[in-house]
Amino acid sequence: MSDLRDAGMTAKAWPFEEARRILKRYEKAPPAKGHVLFETGYGPSGLPHIGTFGEVLRTTMIRRAFEVISDIPTKLICFSDDLDGMRKVPGNVPQQEMLAEHLQRPLTSVPDPFGTHESFGHHNNAMLRRFLDTFGFEYEFYSAREFYASGQFDEILLRAAERYDRLMEIMLKSLREERQQTYSIFLPIHPETGRVLYVPMKHVDGAKGEITFDDEDGREWTLPVTGGHVKLQWKPDFGARWAALDVDFEMYGKEHATNEKIYDGICRALGGTPPNHFSYELFLDAEGAKISKSSGNGISIDEWLTYAATESLSYFMYQKPKTAKRLWWDVIPKAVDEYHQQLRAFDDQPLEKRLENPVWHIHRGQPPVSTMVVPFSMLLNLASAAGAEDKDAMWAFIRRYAPEATPETHPDLDAAAGFAVAYYRDYVKPSKVFRAPDEKERAAMEDLAERLKSHDGPADDETLQSLVFAVGKEHGFEPLRDWFKALYEVLLGQSQGPRFGGFIALYGVAETVDLIERGLDGALS
User: Fold this and answer.
1) What span, in angstroms and rounded, lies between the C-alpha atoms of 289 and 358?
2) Residues with Cβ within 8 Å of residue 473, at least 6 apart in sequence
3) pLDDT in tens, 457-469
């Protein structure tokens, strides 16, 4: 066994912990299907959101960890529940009235409000695949519509008809009495209207594989459970899909955790073995509410990638998956800088620590070298102080701070400079609020300006930070963070900022003196 495999068998990183649990499934014999199957599910009821991406990314990280500790081949399926009926119109898409006319129809039968695809479901599937392809995921895409219609699901659907009473018994235990009266694991798709019907069954013929029911107008129909004429309710569908595909691993948000026993019970009743589960905590918006595809709150994948590189989003997703995380604009700079800190640490770490470093999982063990000689948070404050409109303006300052750096030799720094300008323009600038200093703050800032004017020593981060620190101490700021907070609020229009000495080194001593004088004169806006 290689050193890498040995390290993977003891690594504390959560992807390796999950990979080892999956490996235990096949301690006695390899899978009969010839591979270990990872699955992620996606409901295309609205535009794909960042949580969906996170699910695929995290599953991929576990898959890669598994490949380190085992020679068993792996597959990843991304399954779209696009046969689901559209229960409500998403609030963040056009043509609301048109969509309202197609409620309860399968998403792949609802016209595309954007006018670019065969259906709304096809549009959202295409968006999801574009997002996943942006990040280079290796996966097979499964459409529920095709899965039901092609015959791939027929064996399990016929078995569900045969074992209808047993499956209903599992489901009815979880339902209120009122719901029990009308519930069925089968949802017919009306032959005329095309709508997904939530109606009770009059008869289920297990031998023939047929269901009989009355539609909403009281007309009786008999349909085969195969061929896409019927779909399963979402809870039975979960477990039935596991049985049909022989899924080994699936993760989902904590809202599904209470249903695990139901999913597992359905899977077993249909002759399958439930997969390993991983329940992750939810992503929250700025107000602490769960992000939603239909409401469009939170940050979209496209929005994140407008302001930072893909790796920073992967880093954010890696962190503490069992902890609820606030997903809002201000997490982006922190994720960028922490990602590069981990990159810089990687080469000096022993193998076991590398496997616990997020960048190993982001880059499959081959992380690049970071050329971010200026933190992203510092670039943001440079953009703010300089009023930069493009990254060329940023480079005028960067070259003076780091003469060896060029856009060609430091591509991630070059990209970050452009992202910083965009982030400043769209997020920081509209929310900047400058204030006037009080008497104590004014005296200290005047002192700082004078000391900077006469400073003839090194203009590096640490020297200038010590100078700023000394001014705050001598003017009686306690705690000292009040001094730095005053500098940020008066000079940058925000309550938080970078190490101020590093900012001076990057922005320039003379330029900082000018900034202080304009701030004291109330000329900043």
Assistant:
1) 27
2) 480
3) 999 999 999 999 9
